[in-house]
Amino acid sequence: LALYFHIGEREEKCIIEDIPSDTLVVGNYKVQRWDLHIRDFLESAPGLGMFVTVTSPTGEVLLSKLYGPQGTFTFTSYLSGEHIICFQSNSTRFAVIAGSKLRIHLDIRVGEHFLDESAIQAKDKVNEVNIRLEHLIEQIHHVTREQEYEREREEKFRKTSEETNSNILWWAIVQTLILISVGIWQIKSLRDFFISKKLV
């Protein structure tokens, strides 16, 4: 996931990432500050830091740390589900004068383990093959975890659909019984009325 977004200097912005359990997440970000004189974003935002907070699906805080205007954060998910990643600058200026707009470039990699090419080149061929095999095995484990997570979600969705269909069926049966009961009651009432008026 690579994107950028704008926030106010004292504003908090959150994104939601659906992540399988036991998955490494690596995030890289860079902050740029709006400059009124050149009417464009500066290359960086010197002196400005970012609070990065990561919350699990149960509300547990997995990461809460202050970084610089550019940085890398990592965390491992313990549960499958929607993780909330929030960014807020450490600006201490008053809200009235802290009107500067910030642009945050964000790159999030879920479950990826990148090869260190320089380390591979320094090793002999046997070690290179070993490192590449370990990398492939790790990628296979990640794909397996992703598939298991998707299976869990599909099973949950199927159960919800079956419960909904069952509830609809019972509600239809109850409605039918109510209509039949009301119809029988109306017929009996009309019959009693005609008998009492000696029309039958």
Automatic annotation (TrEMBL):
Source taxon at top rank: Eukaryota
Recorded topology in the membrane: Single-pass type I membrane protein
All copies of domain GOLD, residue ranges: 12-110
Main location: endoplasmic reticulum
TM region positions: 168-187
InterPro entries associated with the record: Emp24-like (IPR015720), GOLD_dom (IPR009038)
Any one cellular-component term (Gene Ontology): endoplasmic reticulum membrane
Location(s), subcellular: Endoplasmic reticulum membrane; Membrane
Keyword Nucleus annotated: no
Keywords annotated in UniProt: Coiled coil, Endoplasmic reticulum, Membrane, Signal, Transmembrane, Transmembrane helix
Coiled-coil stretches noted in the UniProt entry, renumbered to this chain: 119-146
Keyword Signal part of the UniProt annotation: yes
Family: Belongs to the EMP24/GP25L family.
Entry protein name: TMD11 protein
Gene of this entry: Tmed11
